[in-house]
Amino acid sequence: MIQLVDTILALVLLSVLISFGSSRLTMLIRVLAFQGVVVSLVPLFIGHDLTAGSIVFTLVTLLIRGIAIPLFIYLAIKKVAIRREVEPIVGYHASLLAGLALIVAATFVSPKFNLPQTGGDALLLPTAITLLVAGMFLLMARRNAIAMVLGYIMMENGIYLVGTSFSVRAHHIVEFGILLDVLAGVMIMAIILQNINQAFDDVDTALLRTLKE
Amino acid sequence: MVEIVFLIPLLTGVMAFFLPQTTGRFLLVITGVVHLLVSLYLWIRRPVALFDVYFAVTPEGLLSLLVISLLFFLISIYTSKWLEHTEIRSERVFTGSMLLFLSTMTMVTISEHIMVMWIAIEATTLASAPLIYTHRSAATLEATWKYVLICSVGIALALLGSVLITLSMDIGGVDVPVAFSALTEKAGSLDPLWLKTGFVFILVGYGTKMGLAPMHTWLPDAHSEAPSPASALLSGVLLNCAYLGIFKTNKIMHAAGLGDFSSTILIVLGLISILVAATFILKQTEYKRLLAYSSIENMGIIAFGTGIGGLGAYGALLCLIHHSLIKSSLFLSSGNILLGYGSRLIAETGKLAGKMPKTFVAFFGGFAGVSGFPPFGIFIGELFIIIAAFRSGHTIAVGIFILSLCVIFAGFARHVMQISFSDIRSTIRMEEKSVMVWPQYVLLLTSLVLCIWIPDSLYQTIVHAVNSIGGGL
Q1: pTM of the entire structure?
Q2: Taking the CA atoms of chain B, what radius of gyration do you get in angstroms?
Q3: Is the reported ipTM for this assembly greater than 0.90?
Q4: What's the pLDDT band for B392 if we cut at 50, 70, 90?
Q5: Among A116, B74, B425, B439, which residue has the least CB neighbours within 10 Å?
Q6: Among residues A209, A48, A14, which one has the least CA distance to residue A123?
Q7: Which residues in chain A are closer than 8 Å to B156, comparing Cβ atoms?
Q8: Closest partner CB to A196 (pick from B118, B141, B163)
């Protein structure tokens, strides 16, 4: 069982690299959906008590993080996704290298935190840190508005992994509230994306430069 | 039943999306009245909440709640008239979002659970995003995009901070609900390292929402592009809500004996905000952006005062209350100026004193208040902060503080003089309506009265709130 979790988490780490190296937005959305499914399933495998409530909650999380959120983004960008590429602020090769460095760094610092409950899942904390920082990296390194939203979702996935794996305290009702907030946030972002596309005929945030200082 | 205070606007807000437009205006005012009454009831009785793990009535929350309620009531009256003079593509979305925005902000003031606080603050972002996008132009779109993205990312960091605080409970072996009051009681046994880390993330997260530099970049855009009543709410109350999150976490830090750590960060962030405002306020060309930078300045002052502690913390809360009252009145007046001159540029306004005398009185009075002239409360608040800073030996910091205030005053005054007295040929497009002026007068008057005479229960509440973060007279 323990190996299973680590294996899946290793795949998540690889998926971060894919998202850094890929210029296709649909690929990025697929990566996000995969990560969403994994982070919502992980809590089931790391030894918290299995109650009916937590199983239902896991399923709802899975539906929202793994399916609903990627679907919203996909629907919002269906028309623009295949359009020409916007040159990112940090190039794809440099991003890949940065991603590798990030994973190494995250794995290196993780044992120093001395967290309880990590048990045998050696990759939990490194994955969480990697997702968090990778999300922020996408937010800063991409000019494409959709990639930025996806970066935000990746960051949220990382936070969720920290929250569910290392702390058993949050009540399900509260976690559910957080989930709904994130969902609503992504929906609003998707609506804005559509509007940006309509107004500027593109989703390059370089076009959003009229307001300054 | 404390929860009813945010359920009412939630209900009317949802209703406003479906009812005809004119009913929406009426609903806005009615909700304002009911909300104010319920808030007053909570203030007097201070009941226990139904879900007391998640919600509670606290002194600092009550202060914010009362300010929100009063402001919304006055703004709703202004808005009902303002809507007649403004063309909005979808008025239902506007009124509905205003009410939902009120509901979420009210929820912030009574939330007791760390995660519920996060949910409520994130919800304020979502409810206010449609308000900023009301005019549906490319510029408003950009402002909304920046607002939603920057604030969401900021607030995601606050979520991480909240999670880290629960982690510090696990490591410290504290088994209580994740509520602010319970944590403050048990603060001594929390793991200090993770508590500190959590505080930093929460400060950065909610600080983004509060408009502390360098995370403030969304604020001038959002406040200037939003329609004026929404700007008044954003600037007058939303910033307070974010501050409340920081305040409550700071309370835990003080109870855990880590007050020095949190104070230092607050002082630094506060000073950076004031400096940024001083730099940018000089070369503003739009009057609403001017007001927005003034908000950043005041949030900086409040963070600085909270960090100084003692008398300074008391001064910070005074500034918080008076800034809400005065800044919202200024934004409402700026709405009149915009309707009158049809431009947001300072260069295209002028002779306000002659052309719109009633608005001029409100605008100029607000300017005097917000830049710290004696009859208004911000003066007293800033004075307390400066005295406290000298007493505690932060000489260099207070030097920068005073210097920046002077620069900001000079820059602000130059622009206001131009708006008020410079020559301009344009004609005024709208006659002044008294309904669109007296809410501002009431706000300024409240600030004046509170400066001369503070009701005892208000005074006690402020002192009680401030005591918990190492402040007091």
Answers
A1: 0.94
A2: 21
A3: yes
A4: very high
A5: B425
A6: A14
A7: 152, 155-156, 159
A8: B141
